[in-house]
Amino acid sequence: MLVGLALVPLMQLYPGLLEANQDVETEMRLGVAASRKLEELIASMRADIDAVSSGSEGCADLPGCRLEWTVQSVHLSPAPGVGALKSVGVRGCLDADGSLSCDAGEVQVRYDTKVTSRP
User: What is the model's pLDDT at position 13?
Assistant: First the structure.
């Protein structure tokens, strides 16, 4: 009987724990999708530094997921034999309002890197 009385308050915490676990799982899945996209962009840019431009798309395996990426030139040398340097950023979000963009207040992850061309 004492164990039963102790379990009642503990069971009230259970829904909150499940919700927190769901939020962590969603953020992890967004991170995986954004990381994969960043790796895809880097591979394309290694073959041709100008092959990728900024853009966005939905995620195939996570409903409501949106990926946005930006590509910006950091340094482009006119000297022969010197490569280019570009900044790449990928943001993944859970597009809760259906606006097809990552808005403030939505669950988001972001990864940034720089890619150089090979002269």
Answer: 67
